[in-house]
Each structure stands twice: as structure tokens, then as C-alpha cells.
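Section 5.1 Outputs to date
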Amino acid sequence: EDHAKPVVKSKTPRQHSSKPLPDHRDRHDEVLSPGDDCGRCDGHLKTLGKDVTEELEYVPGRFVVNRIIQPRKACTCCEAIVQSPLPSRSIEPGRPGPGLLAHVLVSKYADHLPLYRQSQIYAHDGVDLDRSTMSDWVGRATALLEPLADLIGRMARQRRIHILRYGLVDVDNNTAGRAVKPVAIGRKNWMFAGSQGGGKAMAIAYTLIETAKLNNVDPQAWLT
């Protein structure tokens, strides 16, 4: 798999990483090497050390930790220091993988599990995720997904105009009823959205999740 072009780094102090994620979880390593030859002078690169970024991820049925390893290398000729950049992440800063973000969203909005209940369930599995952390993730993730939700909304409005223009109306409202039911169940569990921002996040999440379900697509797999 191709990675972004290595960047030359200045000799500035590195930021220390925060506390490690639970050590009882399986680790999946991905090494981002800048190669063996210097991009400046074609000299040989020698390894100085490495930076390791850990990301908590969720795969069906269990948590894992992705370890992204970035070797730091120096040219033996021109002394340039190089290191491959980190790939873009769903949330910056933070350490949730896309599968975990999708799982939190689908658990909350499709399975009707409030965040405090999710926190309790994950704690039984040895993973400490407090409600405030996941609430921040929900807000950031839905903000990233807002353009897609807006596109779906525009397409739905165009379709509705087409239906009304040509009289293509269903004989019953069962489809609408099925689509509204999850909102009613979720509202019963949470009582309220909490804020205008919470209501907007809920609208975005429901737009995407219910669209996936209407098209027989697994929402969690799609959002991941």
C-alpha cells in the first residue's frame, strides 16, 4: 500500500505520547518506513529510533489497539532526518479508530444505547471510555459526516418533488413509520438531545443510519 511522501524533519523536541491504552488488548502493528535511501542526496538512511502512535479500534465483537510505528532515520551523508507522516485520522487529536467511532454512533442511534450505558458495557470488557469522551467523539464525527448527510437530504427533497409531480405516492405510510420508530425509541431512552448541537448531531446520525438501513446496508460497516 502506498504511503504519503516522507517529510524531512528538523531537530526539534518531540511531544511525548499520553498514557498507553489497555495492555491486555491485541496489538496490530503498521510500520510506516521512509525507505532506505535519502531523498536529498541518495545516501543511505540509518535508523535513529521510532515513534509509536496507539489507536483504539473496534472490530466486530472486540476491541483491538492499532500501533502505527514511524521509524526515524538519518542520512549518513547529509545528516537529513526523515520520517513518514501519520495517515489522516478521523479525529484530531484523539485515538479512536473509524470502526470504534462507527460502533459508538450505531450503538447510540440505531441500538438506542445511551453513552453512559455504553461506558458501563465497555468497562466490563476492561476498556475505560467515559461518557464525556464519547460525547465529544459523537460531535466531531457527525460534524465530519455533515456534508454527506446534507447531500442525502438534497437528494431526498428532489425525489419528493419528483414523486409529487408524477403522483408516485405509496398507498400507505409504513415506510415512514418504520423510519420514525427508531427516533421515538431513542428519544424515550435519552429523554432529550441536550442542546441544539446535540439535536443536529442526532439528525445527521439518523440521516446516515436510516439511509443505510433503507438500502439494506450495514450502517456500521458503511460508516467505518
